[in-house]
Amino acid sequence: MKAWMGSILLGSVAGILVAVAVNYGEWPSSSGDSSSGSAVAEAVQRDSIENDPAIEAAMRYAQSVRDGDGEVAAAMTQWMADRLERVRLESGDDEAVEQERERLEERAVERSLEGNQLQVEGIEDAYVFAPGSTLEFIRTDGSSQGLERPVQRRVWLRVTYPSPMRALLDTQGRPIRSLVAGVNVSNDGMVLKAGVVGNVEIDYRSLSYEWFKEGRTSSPHNMEGD
User: Fold this and answer.
1) Contacts of 26 (CB under 8 A, 6+ apart)
2) Residues 112, 169, 57, 96, Cα dihedral to 10°
3) pLDDT tens track for 66-99
4) Are the C-beta atoms of residues 102 and 146 closer than 8 Å to each other?
């Protein structure tokens, strides 16, 4: 009888522990597969991106800028495509068009140390999508108003920087840990200019300065949210 009651008691305790682990996300994996949850989340996000042209275009653009692929970045930027067409019509010279294409491709991914600081009016995309940064799809919503062409969707991406030394600086010169940027995508998959400086929109409420989970060494001016 005592053994039977002991089994019931142990079972109840185990059930409580499982419930606590599920609620707080702290249940250890005996097989060492603690990354299975994140792998599922990544698979879900990858499926969402691959099955939505607007999201796929925004991610492709951001990745090309981040990785220094000026050819793809310039080809996906509407105002640059319009600029090339204007040169073609005005000059009728293939060499002039090619020279302008090369200039635009360089500009699309151009970075300088002194330019790596966010301004009130925005910043060039090459600093937002910095080398080594992590890109994560957050959501989509309606487009900004008054852009050069109709917008299919505005795609919001969270950009997380790898270290303070490689991060975008805010207007006060502090390294930003992460931010959320909106990319406006047209019906034909082109990126539209939506900022005074740069193409993307910055959600200034999303600026995070939390570099370390342990110790919470974040800026006192941290404003999170998306």
Assistant:
1) 20
2) -20
3) 999 999 999 999 999 999 999 999 988 899 999 9
4) no
